[in-house]
Design a protein that fits this description.
By secondary structure, the protein is an alpha/beta fold. The chain has one domain: Glycerol-3-phosphate (1)-acyltransferase (3-Layer(aba) Sandwich), CATH 3.40.1130. It is 50% helix and 16% strand. The strands form two sheets. Strands 1-9-8-2-5-3-4 form a seven-stranded mixed sheet, with helices on both faces. Strands 6-7 form a two-stranded antiparallel sheet. Helix 2 packs across helix 4 and helix 3 (45-58) crosses helix 4.
Length: 300
């Protein structure tokens, strides 16, 4: 009962924030969010420590000042993304088209129109939520999105209504296998985040910044088993606040469906993520405990 009350209060606060946001433009809402972040930033000490540690190991040659700068920018990105997500119902379709562009729309539509199915990988980078929304709104890609359920079921339902407002579908990640296969066999798309902490008992370790990183193998397994195109996408925020979604097809025509090939292909999309983070590290969630799992008998 106490938990239900706690969740209800949290949900009410989110609803109030969402309602107040309607009174202002997106630009003003973002300014308010960044002001709140600036005021509250010292209270995020534990996550700041995690982000600084992750960055110092990924970029050992960077100064402590530069690492602190990237850490703060990472929190800024998260604040902006959360603000944009809550504001999404207020964005008109025509405005959305002007707000987001794909750098290779013809690649995505060509692969999708082959009707073989399509796996769209992304990461907690830029505004990953906009990537899925834009795929449906701007390119007409019918997408299934496996998501991790939030503990607060009220907020979880609220956010999923935003995600599915344009026609996309969501499914509980832990129960998504059958639905993903159906989606593929129907020649449609799956949108997956490739940088979440995976399961120790079922997934595999590949390298990310030369560190063993537990990574979901499902994208590689599905691609290899069903011969489905695999594309990594990054919704990168530009200086003017708009987005360019950068797409890179991950080729695997030299591989077959085997345990070794699954490992190789998983490493390839981990490499694609690493290359993007080297180019622009500010827009990733460095405060996430990405390396909390390590192989047995291996030091961090």
């Amino acid at each position: 009962m106490k938990l239900k009350y706690k969740y209800s209060v949290s949900y009410f606060i989110v609803l109030c924030i969402s309602s107040i946001m309607k009174l202002f433009s997106l630009k003003i809402n973002i300014k308010i969010s960044l002001f709140i972040l600036k005021c509250c930033y010292p209270l995020l000490k534990n996550r700041i420590i995690i982000a600084n540690d992750n960055l110092s190991k990924a970029f050992p040659n960077l100064s402590s000042e530069k690492i602190s700068e990237i850490t703060y920018n990472s929190f800024k990105n998260l604040a902006i993304t959360f603000t944009e997500l809550l504001f999404t119902p207020n964005i008109k379709k025509d405005d959305f088209k002007n707000y987001i562009k794909f750098d290779k729309p013809e690649l995505l539509t060509k692969l999708y129109n082959q009707k073989k199915g399509l796996i769209l990988l992304s990461a907690h980078y830029g505004n990953w939520e906009f990537m899925a929304l834009a795929g449906k709104e701007l390119l007409g890609l019918d997408m299934l999105i496996p998501v991790k359920l939030l503990k607060n079921w009220y907020i979880d339902n609220f956010i999923n209504k935003i995600r599915t407002a344009g026609g996309n579908k969501v499914v509980n990640m832990d129960k998504s296998a059958i639905e993903m296969i159906k989606q593929i066999k129907n020649g449609k798309a799956i949108a997956l985040l490739a940088d979440q902490s995976a399961h120790e008992n079922t997934d595999i370790f590949v390298k990310l910044f030369n560190r063993p990183t537990l990574t979901y193998k499902a994208p590689a397994e599905l691609a290899l088993k069903y011969n489905i195109p695999l594309v990594f996408n990054f919704a990168e925020r530009q200086e003017d606040g708009k987005y360019i979604i950068k797409s890179e097809e991950i080729k695997y025509d030299d591989l077959n469906f085997s345990k070794e090939s699954v490992f190789i292909l998983t490493q390839r999309y981990s490499d694609a993520l690493e290359q993007q983070l080297i180019k622009n590290p500010d827009q990733w969630m460095w405060m996430h405990k990405r390396w909390k799992h390590q192989p047995k008998n291996e030091e961090n």
